[in-house]
Amino acid sequence: MKKFSRPALSVLALAAMLALAGCGSKKPVLNVYTWSDYMAPSVVKEFERQFACKVQMNYFDSNEAMYAKFKNGARGYDVIFPSSYMVKLMDEQGMLRKLDKSLLPNVANVDERYLSRAFDKEMDHSVPYMITVTCLAYTPAAGGVEANYGQFDRADLKGRMTLLNDLREVIGAALKHNGHSLNSVDDAELAEAKETILGWKKNIATFENEQYKIGLASGEFLLVQGYSGDLMQVQDENGEIEIVVPEEGTALSFDDMVIPADAPNPELAHAFINFLYDPEISAQNTEYVFYLCPNRASYELLGEETRANPILFPSEETVAKLEMIEDLGENNAKYNKLWDEIKAAE
Ligand code: N2P
């Protein structure tokens, strides 16, 4: 008995010593809250290596789900990736930390052409991470697809199409389809959008933000509304898939990097944002996720095919059709109500 108690005790003592010493071997953890399929694993690994830390990834599938989680008291995140309109809302509610620019030297390379369309042009609380253009994608089996949102009226594709589970994207698509701004707060235009979406709802399988990618790749879904990079990731696996920018115009959105006001590890969070703006890292990330990180210094490091990609680097004609999703202030409530009514409708 005695024989065994000594080593056991010394193991315990060592563990206690390590605990008292703040666990010398324990690495700092950076808690990230973001969208899935949105960062190259090699980029995360490289950050962990350079900064001797562990990056803990947590995922959300819509801005509203992320915001609701925060409102309900979720804490402990160091960097979050909401879209700009949601950043504005969170900022107004004092949820975000002011960024320390002295810790973000790489961010000086941000592309002014995009920054000029951002709401936080000074990057006081947010730095653009990636740019999304909302698109349609389809397989040849969909037959005779036109590049417009009117495709969701097609009864011949009933049950084989999906719309995003994203209220700003879907209401925005209907508004655009009917010739209006996707930020409209006009009651008549919104009522008309509701009717349009209720018609589409009869033909779609579901409102989906994640599973539609697998469904499109496998041929279960023939036509989907999706986020540009996600669609290109699927296209990379299944070369038959076509991606088009809807002719009526469509949403341009930025997902930004922000640090919550009460982030446990703000220094490491700044280091992460700065790291993601290292030209090599931005380029590597864009090549992997097929979204554009608006880092001018990274463009020349992209492959030729990527540089020629008309969705990552759209023509002036396409750009003219894109509209930024904006925060609508008190009118957000109108959209939430409309979305609830759409979801509840038979
Ligand atoms: C990544 C989706 C991010 C785009 N999977 C949404 N703005």
Strand proportion: 15-25%
Distance between the termini: 72 Å
> Quick check: average pLDDT?
92
Output the radius of gyration.
23 Å
- Number of helical segments with 4 or more residues: 15
Written as H for each helix and E for each strand, in order along the chain, the element string is HEHEHEHHEEHHEHEHEEHHHHHEH
- CATH superfamily heading of the largest domain: Periplasmic binding protein-like II
- Unreliable stretches, pLDDT < 50, 5 or more residues? 1-23
- By CATH reckoning, the class of the largest domain would read Alpha Beta
Instruction: State the CATH architecture of the largest domain.
Output: 3-Layer(aba) Sandwich
Structural class: alpha/beta
List all distinct small molecules, including ions and cofactors, that are bound in this structure. Answer: pentane-1,5-diamine
Q: How many individual domains?
A: 2
The total beta strand count reads 10
Please tell me what the overall shape is. Answer: globular
How much helix is in the residues? 40-55%
Largest sheet: 7 strands, mixed
